[in-house]
Specification:
Oligomer: single chain
CATH topology: TIM Barrel
Order of helices and strands: EEHEHEHEHHEEHEEHE
CATH superfamily: Aldolase class I
CATH class: Alpha Beta
CATH architecture: Alpha-Beta Barrel
Strand order of the largest sheet: 1-2-3-4-5-6-8-10
Strand content: 15-25%
């Protein structure tokens, strides 16, 4: 199970290059409103060792110190990325933290992008959508096209409806990155699944789609990964229609 400090890296990301991570969640635990079967952080029930969320001041101090260190050493940073151990928008100071991160980015690494990896469940909450509109790369998850399939793969806490999430994603006017996990497992391998997911992509018309597969140990056993060639074949109709698709194995 991965457990990250408030600011970590930079690490090499297969999607974002040299990525400096920001974890807005507990350093020794996990807080998420999804409990994905493929999560590299493990099951939510196993991440209860620490429930303390960093404040905006905590993030400011840690981020500025790391940016100063990287600048001094000449370490390249392509992206300052909000990921960490769970869903970053659950931190109640998320909007303020985005503002301070943008200011520090502009001061120390003006060419770096600010990216947020989010499951898109909270973009209807006050301040969250506006904060995500400010960053360079709002990378928003949709793994499945129906509520029943999301229940299998993402296991959301509370009420979740794909139609509601799609409606909220529509507010971006296509100016976001859609992220989807392709994996093999009981109950969710079907041509119809991919066909319905592609219809949502066509409706939302995101500026980019990130398709990827499992790369690390998963909490649920028996999951399988796709090859790049297999994923390419699955999304080829979208590529043919002019969608920008990033495929990572």
């Amino acid at each position: 199970m991965m457990r990250e400090t408030t600011v970590f890296g930079p690490i090499f990301s297969r999607r974002l290059g040299s990525s400096l991570g920001i974890n807005l969640l507990p350093q020794e635990g996990k807080v998420c409103n999804f409990d994905c079967v493929y999560c590299e952080c493990g099951w939510n029930k196993d991440g209860l060792g620490d429930r303390v969320l960093p404040s905006a001041d905590d993030v400011r101090r840690a981020l500025e110190a790391k940016l100063q260190e990287c600048s001094r050493k000449g370490t390249p940073i392509d992206s300052i990325t909000f990921s960490g151990d769970g869903e970053p928008t659950l931190n109640p100071e998320f909007p303020a933290i985005i503002d301070l991160t943008l200011a520090l980015r502009n001061q120390y690494y003006p060419s770096a992008k600010v990216s947020v990896l989010s499951n898109a469940t909270r973009i209807g909450r006050p301040g969250i959508f506006e904060a995500l509109r400010k960053v360079d790369n709002p990378i928003l998850k949709l793994d499945a096209p129906t509520d029943a399939q999301v229940a299998l793969v993402n296991r959301p806490a509370g009420e979740y409806h794909v139609a509601d999430v799609v409606a909220q994603l529509g507010r971006f006017g296509g100016d976001f990155v859609l992220q989807t996990m392709f994996l093999r497992g009981p109950g969710w391998e079907s041509a119809q699944w991919v066909k319905e997911w592609m219809e949502i992509v066509r409706e939302l018309r995101p500026r980019e789609v990130m398709v990827y597969t499992i790369d690390r140990e998963t909490p649920m056993s028996g999951l399988g990964k796709y090859t790049v060639a297999q994923m390419q074949e699955l999304v080829q109709p979208l590529i043919d229609e002019g969608f920008k698709i990033q495929i990572k194995g």
